[in-house]
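Internal tracking record. Fields below are filled automatically when a chain is submitted to the structure queue. Please do not edit lines marked as system-generated. If the sequence contains nonstandard residues, flag them in the REMARKS field before resubmitting.
Queue: standard
Priority: normal
Entity type: single polypeptide chain
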Amino acid sequence: MALIDMDESKVLDRITDGFFSLDHNWNFTYVNIAASQLLFRAREDLIGKNVWGEFPEAVGLAFYNYYHKAIAEQTPVKFEAFFPPLDTWFDVRAYPSSNGLTVYFLDVTTEKKLAQEDKQHYRSLFEQNPDAVFSFDLNGNYLSVNSAMEELLGYSEQEYLKLSYIPLVTEDEIKKTTELYSKAAKGITQNYETKAIHKDGHIVHVSVTNMPIIVDDEVVGVYGIAKDITGHKLTEQKLLKSEKLSAVGQLSASIAHEIRNPLTALKGFLQIMMASRDNIEDSYFEIMSDEIARIELITGELLMVAKPQAHHFNFENITEIFKDVKALLSSQALMYNVNIILESEDLPLIFCVGNQLKQVFINLIKNAIESMSVAGGAISITLSKKSKNEIFIQISDQGCGIPEELLSNIGIPFYTTKQKGTGLGMMTSFKIIESHNGRMEINSTEGEGTTITIQLPVHWVA
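SYSTEM-GENERATED OUTPUT FOLLOWS
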């Protein structure tokens, strides 16, 4: 029999855990006050009695199995178990000894109920969520899905649990989706859009959030939430198509307006010439020639805007491009008494279409020269590194400038501050800079001049 001396008894009676000891015949040899209270039995009614005789309902439960395991294997055991007669959950630790078994136990019913409620709340949130909710292991295999996920792609829960996400993603989205999933599996929440394949084969556009599942400060899996945005994508595409059609309509109206004016003049002068064949003034021919030249200019620039360009991106020397442009326009600059000053740092090669950028710079410098056609002046071109990944181009003139209220319209087709301009050159320049992942800004003060600032990346993927 396991014996508890007086001093030990006093200590054990002061602890809040229930404690009792059993001999090799499973008879109680000691029961402390806390155990008596937790079991709702007087100590004197238990001492010397068989534990399975006093609590027959425990036979076949975890208590019976673990106690026998501890004795048979002479190893401590720890477990939680529910005891129906007392409607109580116990946290139990049992230690075998040469005298029998000592048991410490604690009522954890309140904590267990709270944990069960939390679990039920989570389960309800998981199952009743209108969005598709699911979880993966670290290899991307499905561990659980809710009913909304079953509806999203048409698979049953049992079918999902045999799959990973990879066969359900379209081929063109696999690389991106895998990279983002890997980041979530490393502990970084990801939000993105991708395309999934429905069980019947059609494509479903989805917005996805992947969140790491963290247990004891370690990522053990990934949660996912997905929303079907197919309808939104279709609406977006229709809106984009509508906007394109609207832009084509506006451009067509602008073209018709711009070409109609010179055609009206040509038609009028032809009628006059036909009415008085013997008395035709030379000025008529000059006017007609000018108007035909304007139609030719407009159609030429329209073709330049509309014609698909072959984009052969290469690493080019931006300083050399400007030197070519300066040489090309030097005679026109000399004619208007304009001096072109080029200053350049030692710049890296940039990834670009050299001829397209040359077209932009020719257009901008020609505009600057023409703005100084009356009084002459200087055009200052500065090339510098804004950072190791970006270059900075500044073109400043001393021309007539542009009124502030007109600046925002620069780049709109057929909007121009020049008497015989079309506005298509600036529109093309903006488009080329944007196609190179760059930015172009115009600042101007009327009567003082204009400064155009261009920022271009050194390295990027075309």
